[in-house]
Amino acid sequence: MTLSITHLGSGSGGNATLLSTPESKILIDCGFSGRQLEHRLGLIEMKPTDLDAILVSHFHGDHSKGAVIANKKWDIPLMMNFQTCDRLGLDPVNECKLFESLDLIAMGPDLSILPVPVNHGEADNVGFIASHLGERAAVVTDLGSWSDELARHLEGCVHISIEANYDSKRLWEGPYPDRLKQRITGRGGHLSNRQTAELLSHVVTNKTRSIVLCHLSAQNNAPHLAESEVLLEIDDFFEGDISISTQEGPEFSHYLGQAEPEKVAI
Question: Which of 14, 41, 250, 255 could bond to 31 as cystine, CB 3.0-4.6 Å?
Fold first, then answer.
């Protein structure tokens, strides 16, 4: 068995991604209620008590609101940076374990996690690079721009889950107030389909077997728009699989190095 990546759901209504190896079961973010988390894990024949830890990328509710619930209800250890811990009102000594960006975290004998800083306004947000037996997978959402540092960490990853939040035309022609549009498109907002496509064109290599586009806006995007924008940039050299993670997960699991995802039987 290898590392599997399963999005339990992705979007403004809640985010959670399961990283599973034979020895480790880690949840990245928990933006769902306890009942929802239990239900979604149950669809892949898991229970919350199977989880070794929850890593929280930042304090925004769609990524964090279920983490404290899960900790209290099932005693699942929480890991996050200091600002996220502080904004969630947690005791950094007794209620969570702190990490620093770019400090490698050993999660088990066959899984390590590297938190990588990304720009998302006032949130001290991080993406995560998971390493398993010499191969790497990335889960990165909620960023308004990408840096050369992030690109270096993504380059050569076998799997990349990356946000493609909005289609620029839909956003600017849509009903959102101008101030909100400017916040979304700002350096601390979210990546557009075009920005994600440009980033992937810089980091996808012949090692990259699968890509998941996630955190799509229900109002300002559509799966076919995100996928077509990305393929316009990488289709000439990318031979793997592109999937879309929606709010209603889990729908599929990717196994590191395996191009085709395995659908979740519901």
Answer: 14
| Share of residues in the chain with pLDDT > 70 (%) | 99
Q: What's the mean pLDDT in 196-219? A: 96
Give the number of other Cβ atoms within 10 Å of residue 182's Cβ: 11
CB hemisphere CA count around 101 (13 angstroms)? 15
Residue 47: both structure tokens together: 């229970």
Give the span between the Cα atoms of 17 and 123, in whole angstroms.
19
Q: Return the CATH number at 47.
A: 3.60.15.10
Q: Write the DSSP assignment of 52-119 as a string of letters.
A: SEEE---S-HHHHTTHHHHHHHH---EEE-HHHHHHTT--TTTT-EE--TT--EEEETTEEEEEEE--
* Distance of alpha carbon 221 from alpha carbon 215, whole angstroms: 10
Mean pLDDT, the chain, whole residue set = 95
Sheet holding 135-140, edge to edge: 105-108, 111-117, 126-132, 135-140, 159-163, 210-214, 241-244
Domain extent, residue 103, equals 4-263
Domains: count for the chain: 1
Q: For residue 244, what are the β-bridge partners?
A: 213
pLDDT band, very low/low/confident/very high, at 265 (cuts 50, 70, 90): low
For residue 264, what pLDDT is reported? Answer: 78
Mean pLDDT over residues 100-105, rounded?
96
What is the predicted pLDDT for the residue at 148? 94
